[in-house]
């Protein structure tokens, strides 16, 4: 399969991208959720001694030992509900923008890929931001919420819809550069590792992991701000004598007052280790769906040969015609499919109508001997 076939076939069906994206997003978040739980706690501004971790391994062991084996998965329901539609919108928008504006110019395509990542992020975050709020509230140590529904109910009763989108501008400010870097890095690695742009699981995994790691490292300070806005830690608010943290500037100020400059990079290792395998899983699953669905599309479009049902019925026959090229006397043999229909082949008419063969000509001997073009 060449580049044009592989890259263009799936863009014709938004449903393909939405289905593949939804599955990829849910798998990514579910598989990596325990590490994400540790990362959230490591970004705490004033962690409890029982929830102070130096490494991901230590964090997971402490959580399981003191809070139960399922505690690292607390809040995963919110992610499952949010990640499906969020990633469905993300990948469908990404493919749509890329296919519409891409060209043969390499530099131009870098800007197109970055723009596709930014445009896709807007749709993604509109769905994912409330899910992240619920998820991170559930992940915190001594969370006052018994379930995701309990968290939604209590937050809404206390402040209405505001807490669900309090970090929206900050998350947009983080995710737009994150996904721009992510998409450009992924496509760059694909150009090096997968020049022919064929389905290559190894190339997709390496490119996806590298893209996620680079983007995660560069956007960690903004991710820290998002966590502060989503969690609204009581201990930090009491220490600073304020009721809540509001906006990106408020988050930046709070982090600096509590932990100084190093505070902006808390949990960076956990974030990278979360994003690298997560994005590798997401891209490999997405590309797998893209490959399999394009194979189905190709099989449906293949013209019948002599071994097909139509060939066995002696309906499709190959003939040769000679065409004279303009300006030369060279004769070129051109194969064409000629279909001869007889009363005995009525059952094959419907098959012929379902074919997508622009050059197909047919004669109906049983009808009026006129040629029909499909």
UniProtKB/TrEMBL annotation:
Solcar repeats mapped onto the chain: 12-100, 108-192, 199-292
Any GO molecular function: ferrous iron transmembrane transporter activity
A Gene Ontology BP annotation from the UniProt entry: iron import into the mitochondrion
Protein topology in the membrane: Multi-pass membrane protein
Cellular compartments annotated: Mitochondrion inner membrane
Keyword Magnesium: no
Biased composition (Basic and acidic residues): 309-323
Coiled-coil portions: none
Segments for region (Disordered): 299-326
Gene Ontology annotations for the cellular component aspect, listed alphabetically: mitochondrial inner membrane
Keyword match Transmembrane: yes
Keywords: Ion transport, Iron, Iron transport, Membrane, Mitochondrion, Mitochondrion inner membrane, Transmembrane, Transmembrane helix, Transport
Principal location listed in the UniProt entry: mitochondrion
Family membership noted in the UniProt record: Belongs to the mitochondrial carrier (TC 2.A.29) family.
Protein name, entry field: Mitoferrin-1
Gene: slc25a37
